[in-house]
Amino acid sequence: MQSWKYTEDYHMNNFDYFKPKGIEAARELIVSIPNAAFVAGGTNLIDLWKYNLTNPSALIDLNHTGNNITVQEIDSGVRLSAFATNASTAYHPLIENRYPLLAKAILAGASGQIRNMATNGGNLLQRTRCYYFYDPDSPCNKRNPGSGCPAIDGYNRMHAILGTSKHCIAVFPSDMCVALAALDARVNIAGQKSSRCVPFTDFHRLPEDTPELDNTLGHGEIITSIDLPHKGFASNYSYLKIRDRNSYAFALVSVATGLELEGSIIKDARIALGGVAHKPWRIREAEDFLREKQATEKTFESAAAIILSGAQGFKFNKFKIELAKRAIVRNAAMALNPSIQKPGAQPS
Amino acid sequence: MTQDNNAVGKPLSRLEGKAKVTGEAAYAGDYQVPNLLYGYVVNSTITKGKIVSIDVSDAKSYNGVIAIFTHENRPDYASLDLKHADMDAPPGKVFKPLQNGDIKFHGQPIALVVATDFETARYASTLVKIKYEEQPFETDLEKNLGRAREPKKGLATALKPPPPKPKGDFEKAYEQSPFKVSTEFIHGTEHHNPIELFATTVVYEGDGKLTIYDKTQGTVNNQVYVANVFGLHYKDVRVLAPYVGGAFGSGLRPQYQLFLCAMAALELKRNVRLTLERKQMFSFSHRPQAHQILKFSADKEGMVTGLSHAAIGETSLYEDNIEIVSSWSNRLYPAENTHFEYKLVPLCLHSPIDMRAPGGSTGMHAIECTMDELAFKLNVDPLEFRLRNYAEMDPESEKPFTSKALRECYIKGAEKFGWHQRNPIPGSMSKGNKLIGYGMASGIWDAYQFPARVEASISSQGKLLISNATTDIGTGTLTVMTQIAADEFGLSIQDVSFVYGDSKQPFSMFQGGSAITASTGVAIVVAAKALKKKLIKKVKALANSPFHVFQDDAIVFRGGKMMVKHEPSVSISLEEIIVANKGRAIKTTNMGKPHLLKLRKYSKATHSAAFVEVEIDRELKTINVTRAVTAVAAGKIINPKTARSQILGSMVWSLSKALREETILDSTLGKYMNPNLAEYHIPVHADVHDFDVVFVEEKDELINELGVKGVGEIGLIAMPAAITNAIFHATGKRIYKLPIHFDELLKDRIA
């Protein structure tokens, strides 16, 4: 109902807006303008801005840089545009048919409205939902390095149990990325000198001594696409998301599972966890352990123990250790029989 | 006198429904007025201490900023606490915004920036530099139970009396009873969170006169408050709130945006708007934390012998907000020996305010879970246990109820739900890898009636006009009042107008306590009867009137006409009456009030019974409420559709209260950590399954002229306990903390 008026005096939180025509132009802008930010879907950036957690001097819009084919086949598998929306990716026939695990994980996240706006590249770069991170008046080592972490002794129900540091116990909130980690995706990045390709599980990082860094993307680099290998586990897969309400809530624990079977023998297995660490959590020893074993509850219980080894709970999230173990076992059962799965990544 | 009874009892859709869903309805922050200024509030970022300095120079000089108000430069306002006390103010010293530099809670409003537009005001608020001196604080009830004390008494004590005096010898009875349970419950904080943000638009009319569009549940309450605080004549202050986008109790008291907005308008002599943002909706009014200890005992026949209930609630440093938490059990169940307590702990938080079913939803949750536990010990079906201890008279006051159809609620609710299919053994029912649990609980809530005045008139067009200052907070008040008035005059809905949501109209209390249908509704009946009498008198006085040979009680009003009941040919239309009155409207103003003398001999209450099915994952323990039935006895139901919506909404809230809703309080930082609707979880569609409502017939000729009791709160009393009890039935595990986190059920297998 507000009437907008725009005058020259109107310089509150003023920012410039650029619409570069290509990736290279976008990169040149970001390195030449201090405190500029890329924007694609904006579903996280605008929130952060409204909460006064960020205040970019310029927005560089990546939506007009070309390279907008949502999903395309390439020699090594399938390529997802970083600039395509989550919704258009999840509902793309190539993804629905060959990578249903990814489709299911995407559709378990956020809301329909957000998925229609949010992009694939942005999904990788979303920030944690830690309460303390989101409150500009609270200390937070991720937001304000060195100020402390009130979550460690505070309300940490949603926080990490694996890979934590004494500086940060935040969780990376994506669902999509849990499936991408399980599927051995690779992230294509355009950089200053050349482009590089990073295995998905190396893209995000643990907090260690620099929790302000969520991932390994350098300043001036742009994610251009995400590649999926041929193997999509389309026959035996499941994404299970356990949360405090049935929709529009972040995972307390989520599991992406893909299995390749010969009879009841596991030939290949992928298990990645969400909601438990600063990055999607994947332990290859557990997958090696599963190979050539009978697909029984006991087998998966043993794998779960390997995946959760070293887990450390805090006052309000100790339950996640047991919950994650049970979720791994359940999700294996759901993957063995995808026909029993319910919509919404709920337990079935 | 009998009338056609056409409208009452019909499931009419809300008369204002189309205006609301099309966006035509204007809310407090929507009104377009010329030359409007916009405010933005600066809130404290510390929990307790003092403002050492507040530097507004940068903000003040920012282009577009008109004024900044702080405790250092605010205009004078009434200094007496009494002048700030609204009709719902609890005992204590009312919070006065910008009074001085003392900080008593996190988020306390400490400055108001007024600018030519909202964005400028908001941005300039970030330029205000504040230095604080912090002091230690306590915000956690559980850590401060030792400081619990008796609440102060005040005017509000009349509506919220202390718990009843003890009866018999509870300790002895408890000791000697063969069956007993002792329980301890913890309830977390909830915030009201109506979707409509709190907002005020003040139109400065000149000469110290204000027209105020406010988000409130009480137009007269806020009118008197503004007049008292700023030394205006109350006739010069008009508060309007025709549409209210939910309030749930948070609008029972004037909130700080009204104070600041009116202050700025008066000082600047300009029109001002102030809208709070969602985060600021967590800086006033909430349902307080509570700690309860109960001990119930029974004899071997399964009759309750002792009831003890002690509750400790939280309040602010400045007021003693009182809830009725521990006074309910003996109004439902007869026991010779009782002991009740209610205490408060003051904490560095803003004052709690009544939130839908205040106290009742907290206390009855504990009572009905404890009853379930006692039934289990006795090896008696929980429903059978309630029926065995059914009180025909109110055991607490030893008075008869004006009406009580709780037994019918139990029977009809159980039948609709299929309670007889319940296997009493916990964990015995399942479907695949889901455990099934059935739980039930009883509900009780007061049946209040406030005095109210109504003006009734026949307009110059021969239409019926009814007016009263009450709001319609989304409950269907407009529709219900129109139905009541239409029936009194035998008119169709289209021929009746109800003018409301305006302090200029005849008096109404705030809309709370499920009382408005009884309060304004009864006043409509009284005024309509008086108006009919006046019309009959006028008509009889006309020359050659065929009516004057008939007794008044032989004359009826139907279809827009006054007629003789057994000789319908003797009639005159309302329009003709007005013509005969030289085109002038005929009006009367009357007071409806409770029949206190008569009602002193009775106990008044609404009742309910809730039945719930939960499905719990055998290994993961995730909980879904798959079915629920709430049966309600609340006297006459004027509009089954809007009443059903009230109960359904309460049932969704019950699910929320039991399993979702929680304001997270970090007691180290002294603040609420999830002040937004992404992290403050309320149910989503995927959480809400098969919910049903049953209204049982309850004829009450004693309670008031209409036989109504109100349905705003009763739906939220029983179901949270029914959910908790169903979880026990599914798993064998009792959870004593709300909201229930499903992972509590994982603990049995954690080594």
UniProtKB/TrEMBL annotation, chain B:
It comes from the Bacteria. Pfam families: Ald_Xan_dh_C, MoCoBD_1, MoCoBD_2. Gene3D superfamilies: Aldehyde oxidase/xanthine dehydrogenase, a/b hammerhead, Aldehyde oxidase/xanthine dehydrogenase, molybdopterin binding domain. Residues 22-136 form the Aldehyde oxidase/xanthine dehydrogenase a/b hammerhead domain. Residues 148-170 are annotated as: Disordered. One of its GO terms (molecular function) is iron ion binding. Coiled coil: none annotated. This is Xanthine dehydrogenase family protein molybdopterin-binding subunit.
